[in-house]
Structure formats: structure tokens, C-alpha cells
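fwd from M.: "can u put these together and see what the complex looks like"

so here's what she sent:
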Amino acid sequence: MKHKNMAHALYFACSLLALAGAALLSLTTGEVDIPLSNLGKVLTNDGSMAHSILTHIRIPRTILALSIGGSLSLSGVILQGIYRNPLVEPYTLGISGGASLGVTLAIVTGAYFLGRFTLPFFGFAGAFATIFLVYILSLRRGQVSVNRMLLIGVMISFISSAMVMFLMSITSIEHIPGIVFWTMGALNESDPLIVGGMLTVAIALLFISFFFAIPLNALRTGESKARHLGINTSLIIRLLFVLTSLLTGCCIAVAGVIGFVGLTIPHITRYFIGTDFRFLLPASFINGGIFLICCDVVSRTLIAPNELPIGVITGIVGGVTFIFIIASPRLNSKTSES
Amino acid sequence: MADYMSILGGSNIAGSLSSGTVSREFVVAENPEYIFVVTMGEIGEEEVTEWRKFKTLHAATDGHIYTLNSEIACEPTPATFVQTLRQMHNHIKE
């Protein structure tokens, strides 16, 4: 037991170091070269171009990548725990589809009544409308059917996608790039209120999720056995569903649709740290942050000065990693247990 | 856009690129004298506000960030091409 605790402590120390390394890489890499040794000097030199790039572009991007990557990964690991299904991620439940539909509606109708907060607002509203719909349709005699919830989520995702295509086909051509770029995801938001708000939500919900680690461990044995262990599974599932929906809704509202983080990172994290949710939840958050920060660096530098949408990078890297895990029997046996 | 710029005697900082979206950092590093945001309405205004935050940008400090109507600038006919050109010329003359 002592040996295991030491191993976990060592793992967390290494992953925090990796997170710091990824953040420094993100702050120093880009179109303008800012060497690590000059970072402190640049931060204090208010009038320089490098300072402007650091404060308006790279620092907000790094914070967003950490909070959004962490949140999506945390949502993924919780949902996989609830559903005991390794293929579930926040977007499987139709949340991204609903958010995309909300944003598309805002762009097509030109309803910019909230200024720069309009698209995040519509994204969030779309995500929450979907969650509400999925939840209501999954209820049977006051009980939530987990499998029904999953199937309805997948169907709503398809319907939303078809609706987005319908709106794109009838709208003016100038609206289409906005819709397409939003659905590919971006970490361009630099408003301190939005960036700070996202970080606060992510850390607050990570903290709250710790209180659900023991029920989630019990749910690994199955809903029925967890109930016999004294867990109010129905309430726990509802609360966790709200928590993950809130996290995912915020992520989509701020950065658009960034797929595969919530699917792949929990699998990789389980490989390293096991299936105990007391360790799995924070480890997934940190790994999600590291992954999205690195993907952001790649999206900015791969074909510089052009910039790739981050969803393209997470889709390719996440998808290939997932296939590698599934195809490898040794890795699959260690990671597939939700 | 490169055609509009060259006719007006300037050069597009992204003129040598054939495709894709350039990063904000690239624009800040190139430090253009004028920025034309080719979107109207709220999104265009937001973009202008965003660029004004960069105090080292010549275009921002000199107040040379303008919006152009994407419907006429990006889908030019002989008439709208001249219309856009005239609009840009008026901004530069200011």
C-alpha cells in the first residue's frame, strides 16, 4: 500500500513537471521567437512586441488549453465511469451537436444581441437544451436509463448535425466560413473575463468531482451492486451528468468543438494510474491539459505562418492513439476497464 | 486582397501565402500599417476591437483598422471591385 502511494506521488510529480514543461513550450514557441531565458524579461517589458504577443495571445491560449483540455478529459473519465462504456465521451451524448446547432442558428439569423458573448451564449444554450432533452427522454418512471440516455444522445447528435447542414445549405455563403471554423475548434479567445472564468469553472468542478470519487469507484462494480453498497446511484448519476454537462457546455461555448480529448485521455491515464477514481480524476485533468497545450503548439507551428484548427490536430492524434490502444491487446486490457 | 493592395501601392503581408488562415501572431510580427477586416456587423467590430489591443501594431496605434463589406470585397464583379478599391483608397487617404 505504501509502495503504491509512493508510485502515485511520483506519477503526480512527473505529470505536474510535464504540465509545466508543456506550458513553457507553449509560451516560448510561435511565429516570434521568445527564448526561455528571456521570458521573465519579456513579461516585465510592457512596450515590446513580444510582451504584447505573450500577454494577448500565448498566455490566454495556454490557460484555455489547460482548462479546456482538463475539463473535457475530466468529463470523459466521469462519463465513462457512469456508463461503464469506454466509447463514451462528452460529445457522444449529443452535447457538441446541440452547441453547434445553437451557434449556427446565431450566425445564420445574425442575432448578435450580446456582442462578443453571443456565440458562446448560443453554444452554451444549445449544449444545455440538448442535455435537458436527453435527460427528459431518458426518464422512465422517474428513473434515468443510462443506456437509453446514450442512444438518445447519439441520435440527437445526428439530428443536430443534419440541421446544421440544412441551415448551411440555405444561408448566405458569407456565413459558412464562420460556422465551419467554429465547428473545428479554436483557442483564440483572449478576453480576460472569459479566460479567467473558464479556468475558475474548470478548477472548481475538478474540486467538486473529488467528492464523487468514492461513488464512482462503487459504480465500477455496476449500478445494482453500488446501490447495495449504500450509494444513491440515481442521484449520483444525475449530479455527475449535470457536472459534466456544465463543464462540456463551458468548453464548447469558449472554444468550439474539440473532439477526442474526452475519449482518448482517460484511456491513456488509466494505463498509467489505474482505475481508482481518487487518482484518476486529477490525473485525467492534468493529462488533458498537457495534451491540449501540446496540440495547440502543433496547430500553431506545423504549417506556420498558417494556423490549423486545433480540432484537426486533436482528431488525428487522438484518433490514432485510440486505435493504437484498441489494437494493442496488452494496452487494451489495462485501459478498457472503466 | 493582394490585388486590391498592390493596385493601391501597398503589399499584402500574407500575399505570398496561397491558402489557409494566418495566425494572429504572424500579423503582429509583420506589423502592418493598415488592417482591413473583411466582415461587417458585430463580428467585424469585435475583430477591430481585438486588434486595437495590440499597442505595438502600427495599424492599431495610428487608428488604421477598418472594416470592409465581405459581400462586395470577397465576391468582386467589375463594379464591386472598383467600389471596394475606392473604399480602401478613402481610408488610406484619411
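replying to her w this: Residues 3 and 44 of chain B are 21 Å apart (CA to CA).
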